[in-house]
Amino acid sequence: MNTLRHDFMKYVSSNVLGMLAISLYVLADTYFISACLGSNGLASLNIAIPVYNLMSAFALLLGIGSATRFTILHSQKRNAEASSLFSFTFLFGTLSGILLCMTGILFSEDIASILGANGEILPTTTLYLKTILCFAPFFILNNIMIAYLRNDNDPKLAMSGMLIGSLSNIILDYVFMYPLNWGIFGAAFATELAPIISLCILSIHFFKKTNSLKFVLKDLKISYLKTIFTLGLSSFINEFSSGIVLIVFNFLLLAQAGNIAVAAYGI
């Protein structure tokens, strides 16, 4: 019973601390953008953030769904299939991220307009969207790796990756927006460097003796997607619905009082 309680607290505390770190760097983004760019910067951030939510929903769908199935396969001693699933998810996440990156390069302005950005804040919203979408592969892979490390008996390293990435984002926010004066691009760039730094920390897991994550290039099955989507659907819906609600709120606020209302709601 004591062992069960210890494991429960280890996993729960690691997850909670990791989520607090994410909340902290969202707060830091809001603070630095408001201090540096004022209400228009905040309005741009709040209009662009739903895309971040939707990207996060997809990453959680892949990460949670795949890592859950990975654990089941390992418990059944089907290690070769578990490695194939991990490799497929990693590859599929990379290709999906590249597709999002290309979408950001080509269609960021159109997406910003659809989300409600007007002439005054359209350029900054477009720049923010383009920057975060260009780094989509790293963001998706980071979420996949965090889910896998938790399920591969390394929740502390997963937490460390999230914490260090988040703290790096806060520091880089200040550096990019004040000494370097990069404006909203600096805020977006700092946010998207965070998963890269996190991935560097998470990669330590591959050098541990307890690591069960193996890359293989055979028996990769597209049918894995059905299992992944089924097991990850609840996490996807939770994050996806947050993004949709924010989009609806933004449209209502824009109709009522314009950009200043969106900026106030963003706080």
Enumerate the spans where pLDDT stays under 50 for 5 or more consecutive residues: none
Largest sheet, in brief, is: none
The general outline is globular
Distance between the termini: 44 Å
Query: Which range does the strand content fall in?
Result: under 5%
Order of helices and strands: HHHHHHHH
What proportion of the residues is helical, as a percent range?
over 70%
The total beta strand count reads 0
Radius of gyration: 19 Å
Number of helices: 8
State the secondary-structure class.
mainly alpha
- What is the average per-residue confidence, as pLDDT, rounded to a whole number? 89
List keywords for this structure.
267 residues; 8 helices; mainly alpha
Describe this structure in words.
The chain is mostly helical and 267 residues long. Helix content is 84%, strand content 0%. It has 8 helices and no strands. It has helices spanning 2-75, 79-114, 122-134, 136-151, 155-177, 183-202, 224-257, 259-266. It starts with a helix and ends with a helix. The mean pLDDT is 89.
